Amino acid sequence: MSDNEMMDKEEIFSKVLRAGRRTYFFDVRATKAGDYYLTVTESKKFTNDDGSFHYKKHKIYLYKEDFAGFTEILNEMTDFIVDEKGEEVISERHQKDFQKSYEKDETEGNTEEVVASTGSFTDVNFDDI
């Protein structure tokens, strides 16, 4: 049996969520023992300077024994974000009049220098989640 046939046989149920440059694939697959698990794949499109493009993919595997804890924490985190910031998207991409905090300070005549400390953070973008 070829690899493609194994992949087709392994996928049980799939859904796709398109979100701008990102696409999320939710796939139910079967283990060799016949049990089911979930894979969530984020695929992000990047355009090269020559106009060609490529995709970067990140995948997580979620097994039944982790569903309850994962769902609980995911719901807690999403509820926190909506409670704190509302459902309206706040980003440069979604609002033409959006200003970064240091730009607001400059336009309001604030002479204090605003310094962003990124030493302990990674470059993570959650705009499309």
From TrEMBL:
Keywords: DNA-binding
Compositional bias per record (Basic and acidic residues), positions renumbered to this chain: 93-104
Source taxon at top rank: Bacteria
Matches recorded under SMART domains: PUR (SM00712)
GO MF annotations in UniProt: purine-rich negative regulatory element binding; RNA polymerase II transcription regulatory region sequence-specific DNA binding
Stretches the record annotates as Disordered: 93-114
A Pfam family assignment: DUF3276
InterPro entries in alphabetical order: PUR-bd_fam
Family assignment from sequence similarity: Belongs to the PUR DNA-binding protein family.
Protein name: DNA-binding protein
Organism: Aquimarina muelleri
